[in-house]
Amino acid sequence: MSVETYIVGEIGQNHNGDIEIAKKLVDIVAEPVKDDLFGTQLRPMNAIKLTKRDLKEELSVSAMNRPYTGYHSFGKTYGEHREFLELSDEEHYEVYKYTKEKGLDFVDTLCAVGCLSIFRYFEPDRLKVASRDLTNIPLLSALAETKVPIILSTGMGGKPELDAALEVITKYHSDITILHCLSQYPSEYQNINLNTIPYLIKNYPEYTIGYSDHSIGIMIPVAAVALGARVIEKHITLDRNMKGTDHAGSLAPDGIRRMVRDIRNLELAFGEEGMFVSKAVKDTKIKLERSIASNRNIEKGEVITEKDIHLLSPGDGFKWNEKNMVVGKKAVRLIPKDEIIYKDMIE
């Protein structure tokens, strides 16, 4: 039986600074997913994720003060835009409580040491390190010291950066998930390199390996699970046309349901290693497989020869490799042409 994939719906800052939008996304994520073809209820995502920044540790003064007046801007400067999108510690706590009430885990990306102030109110189930902070040694050390399980995203780093980050974190604990990632928005398929997933599984067997996706659609996350990813992270939104930079590249409610449906069904499809006849094909096997049949009327008392037989469906009679149980035997009654020869028809 395959291991269940831990699926994280990344709200990030797609709440647009409004906790009610965040809660609506939690509601959507928490809904069981139905497969209409088979009428089955599938487990929804496992967690949602928010992002928290400390604007004092975000960008240079000049970068924060630069004009930012495009369609997706929530302020006249980039600093004002970022400030508008930030939820306070108390608001993070409110979304955390709401998430837990819905039976989901709560993951938080903390982008600065100052963001650890949320621990005054609650402890996230997991802490996420954004790709840009893979080399942020002071932050890695501060997050690891909490002993909360850590998810590391590698979208801007290679093996040296990853190994250096692991060296810091493992001084405190080893409950680490490594996410293959490409920090290109949206990610072009030729750059994604999904084969990094089996590479990580082989070279970092002591850690959980997953994938954080920035491609459009649901194909790549499902393929990542097929390659062995045990954690999937994907941006989500209420509406891909909403104002805000991440909405267009996120999954809207229908996309969320389709991705979760396909991942959960893929988990069911993995099965076990080996080759065997599935119980599910029992009826089909009987209906369609071939059995030894008469190719002419065989009279009672006649000895059946190989020239007298051929193969027809259904498959509930003798197979060709059992023809020695038919050839050379006498018919105990008339066997009409093109009928399956059963045990009670021969000696």
Give a verbal description of the structure.
- With 347 residues, this protein is α/β, with parallel strands linked by helices.
- It contains 11 helices and 12 strands.
- Strands 1-4-5-6-7-8-9-10 form an 8-stranded parallel beta barrel, surrounded by 5 helices.
- Helix 1 packs parallel to helix 4 and helix 9 runs parallel beside helix 10.
- The longest helix has 18 residues.
- The model has no long low-confidence stretch (mean pLDDT 92).
Keywords:
12 strands, elongated, 8-stranded parallel β-barrel, 347 residues, TIM Barrel, 30% helix, Type Iii Antifreeze Protein Isoform Hplc 12, 2 domains
Task: Produce the secondary structure layout.
Layout: E1 6-12, H1 19-30, E2 33-35, E3 40-42, E4 47-52, H2 61-65, H3 78-85, H4 89-101, E5 105-110, E6 126-129, H5 137-145, E7 150-153, H6 159-169, E8 176-181, H7 189-192, H8 196-203, E9 208-213, H9 219-226, E10 231-235, H10 253-270, H11 282-288, E11 291-294, E12 309-312
Parallel strand pairs: 1-4, 1-10, 4-5, 5-6, 6-7, 7-8, 8-9, 9-10
Antiparallel strand pairs: 2-3, 11-12
Helix pairs in contact: 1-4, 9-10
Strand content: 15-25%
Radius of gyration: 30 Å
State the CATH class of the largest domain. Alpha Beta
What's the number of extended β-strand segments? 12
Spatial separation of the terminal alpha carbons: 46 Å
- Give me the oligomer status: single chain
- Sheet with the most strands: spatial strand order: 1-4-5-6-7-8-9-10
Determine the fraction of residues in helical runs and give it as a percent range. 25-40%
Residue ranges: pLDDT <50 for 5 or more in a row? Answer: none
